[in-house]
Design a protein that fits this description.
5-stranded antiparallel beta sheet, 3-stranded antiparallel beta sheet, 17% strand, alpha+beta, 14 strands
Length: 489
C-alpha cells in the first residue's frame, strides 16, 4: 500500500529537495503567487541578513556615471543581525532544553507515556526550536509532520509560502504550500545555472496532494500537474499552524521585530561609519608643508628609512581625535536601549549582572519585561504544542490499527482513556544552588516547628529534585533506616 511505503510523504527526490529549501524570494509581479504577504519576506530578509542585497558594496562610493553614492544607499560594512539574536534568546526561553513544557494526562498515565515517547522518537524538542524562531520573526509558521517508512519526518515551512484555511473555530482545515526553488541538479544548458522551479504541496484533513515542478516564468502563473494523492483519512491536517497571538481575520500574529527595523538599520550604518573612521585613523595620510609641488615629486627616502624633505620641508600624519566615533558609540547605546524597550528582550552586560546571577529571583527582576513577554507567549505556544502532539499521537494510533509501520510499538487493543493534556511550564529562570539551599532551609524550619507536615513539604520540594512520584518518595523516606545523629565510632 502507498500509505505503508510513504504515508503522506513527498513524491519525488526533487520534491524532497524543494521541501528542504526555504524558497527563493522573487519580486512580486502580476500573475504570480510565490508570496502570501510582502512584509513577511521583509522580516525574513532581516533574519537571514539579506535586507541590503542589491545595494552597492560599502566601499563603492561612485556610480557608473561617476556620481557619489550616499552612505545610506550602500550595503553596510557590518550587519549585526540582531533579529536572529533576539529571536534565539526568546525561543530559548519558550522551547529551550530547560524551559520546554511537560505534557501530562493525570487520568491516563499510559497515554502520557505514549506521548512522551513520541516526543522523543520524533526529536520534537530539538526540531521545534528553529520553527519557533521563524514564527517569532514572521508572526507565524507552519510545522508539518509525516510518517515515512515508519519514522517521523518533521519539517517547517515559512509562513510567507503557506496559505492556510481555518474553520469558524480556528481549526486548521487545509494548507497550500507554494514557492520557487533552485533545482541544483537541473542546470540551464546555456547559463549553467540551476533552473528555477515551482514547488507545491496541498494538505487537508483527508488527503495530501503532491504536484510536479514546472519551471518558473516571470509574470505567469504556473500550471501544476498532480503527481500523487495520498488519502490518509485522518480527519485532520498533518501539521499545525503557530502564530504569536490571536489576531482577528489574520493567520499571522505580530512580529517580534516589526517595530525596530529602523533601529537595526541605524546600528548597522553607525557601526560601519565608525569602522571607516577608525580605519582611516589607523592608516593616516601624510601631510607635507614647506615644499612646493616640484619638491614633493622629487621626495625620496634614504637608506636609513627616513623621508628626506629637504632643508625647509616638514611632514606629519593627519590623525583624528576619534571624538566622533565616541559620540557614535554613545548613540549606539541609546539605540540598543530603545530596541530592548520595544522588543522587551534585554541584552544586559554580563559584567553588570554577574553579582545577581546567583539568584533566580534577581534575574527575574532584571529581565522583568522578558518575563512578561514569555508569559504572554506561553498560552499560544501551549496551544500549538498540545495540538501538534495530539495529532502525532493519533496518527501513530490510527496507523498502528491499519497495520502500517510506526516508530512506536502500540499494544494490540490499546485505547487512550483520556486526551485531556495539561501543560506544566518550568521556571523561566531556574533556581540556583543558593535558591535551592534557602528553599530547603525554609522547609526544614517549617517541619521542625510543626507548622507544615513533612509530606506536604516533600511534595513542595519534589519538582526541584526531579522527583516524578512524590507519594513513592514519601514511602522511601519512611522506610529509610535512622542514621546515628552522633556519628559513627
Amino acid at each position: 500500500m502507498a500509505e505503508q511505503k510513504r504515508f503522506a510523504g513527498l513524491a519525488t527526490r526533487t520534491q524532497l529537495r524543494a521541501a528542504n529549501n526555504l524558497g527563493i524570494i522573487l519580486k512580486r509581479t502580476p500573475g504570480t503567487s510565490s508570496l502570501r504577504r510582502q512584509d513577511l519576506e521583509l522580516f525574513d530578509a532581516y533574519y537571514e541578513k539579506r535586507q541590503y542585497d542589491g545595494l552597492p558594496e560599502w566601499d563603492e562610493n561612485k556610480a557608473a556615471d561617476d556620481s557619489f553614492i550616499p552612505v545610506r544607499k550602500r550595503k553596510p560594512r557590518l550587519n549585526l543581525n540582531l533579529s536572529k539574536t533576539l529571536a534565539s534568546r526568546l525561543a530559548a526561553k519558550l522551547v529551550g532544553q530547560r524551559t520546554f513544557p511537560e505534557l501530562k494526562i493525570e487520568d491516563d498515565p499510559e497515554t502520557e507515556d505514549l506521548i512522551r515517547t513520541i516526543k522523543q522518537v520524533s526529536r520534537l524538542r530539538g526540531i521545534i526550536v528553529e520553527p519557533m524562531r521563524r514564527g517569532l520573526i514572521s508572526g507565524s509558521v507552519f510545522v508539518r509532520f509525516a510518517l515515512i517508512n515508519g519514522q517521523f519526518f518533521v519539517q517547517h515551512f515559512l509562513s510567507k509560502h503557506a496559505f492556510p484555511e481555518f474553520d469558524a473555530a480556528q481549526n486548521l482545515m487545509s494548507v497550500r504550500i507554494q514557492f520557487v526553488f533552485e533545482d541544483k541538479e537541473d542546470l540551464d544548458p546555456k547559463t549553467q545555472m540551476p533552473k528555477k522551479k515551482w514547488f507545491r504541496l496541498d494538505l487537508d484533513r483527508f488527503k495530501d496532494t503532491s504536484y510536479d515542478n514546472p519551471e518558473f516564468e516571470e509574470g505567469t502563473d504556473p500550471q501544476f500537474t498532480v503527481t500523487e494523492v495520498v488519502e490518509h483519512d485522518l480527519g485532520f491536517v498533518q501539521g499545525e499552524w503557530y502564530k504569536t497571538a490571536d489576531v482577528v481575520n489574520s493567520p499571522d500574529g505580530p512580529s517580534l521585530i516589526e517595530d525596530v527595523l529602523d533601529f537595526f538599520d541605524e546600528l548597522n550604518y553607525n557601526f560601519s561609519q565608525s569602522s571607516t573612521a577608525i580605519e582611516y585613523n589607523q592608516d593616516p595620510q601624510l601631510a607635507l608643508s614647506g615644499m612646493d609641488e616640484e619638491e614633493t615629486e622629487q621626495l625620496i627616502r634614504s637608506s636609513f628609512k627616513a623621508w628626506n624633505f629637504g632643508k625647509e620641508g616638514k611632514g606629519e600624519f593627519l590623525e583624528t581625535t576619534l571624538s566622533g566615533v565616541e559620540k557614535a558609540g554613545d548613540f549606539r547605546g541609546v539605540v540598543r536601549q530603545n530596541i530592548q524597550d520595544i522588543v522587551r528582550v534585554l541584552m544586559l552586560d554580563p559584567e553588570k549582572i554577574v553579582g545577581s546571577a546567583q539568584s533566580a529571583k534577581a534575574m527575574e527582576i532584571l529581565h522583568g519585561p522578558l518575563v512578561e513577554l514569555v508569559e504572554e507567549l506561553r498560552p499560544m505556544v501551549e496551544k500549538f504544542l498540545v495540538s501538534l502532539c495530539l495529532k502525532m499521537t493519533l496518527t501513530v494510533l490510527i496507523q498502528s490499527q491499519r497495520g502500517a509501520p510506526t516508530p512506536v510499538i502500540v499494544p494490540p487493543g490499546f485505547r487512550p482513556q483520556s486526551l485531556n493534556l495539561t501543560v506544566s511550564w518550568p521556571e523561566i529562570f531556574p533556581m540556583t544552588m543558593e535558591d535551592l539551599q534557602k528553599k530547603v532551609g525554609v522547609a526544614a524550619s517549617a517541619s521542625t516547628a510543626s507548622l507544615i507536615s513533612r509530606e506536604t513539604l516533600t511534595k513542595w520540594l519534589a519538582k526541584d529534585f526531579g522527583i516524578e512520584d512524590p507519594e513513592e518518595e514519601i514511602k522511601k523516606i519512611a522506610a529509610q533506616p535512622i542514621i546515628n545523629p552522633f556519628g559513627g565510632f
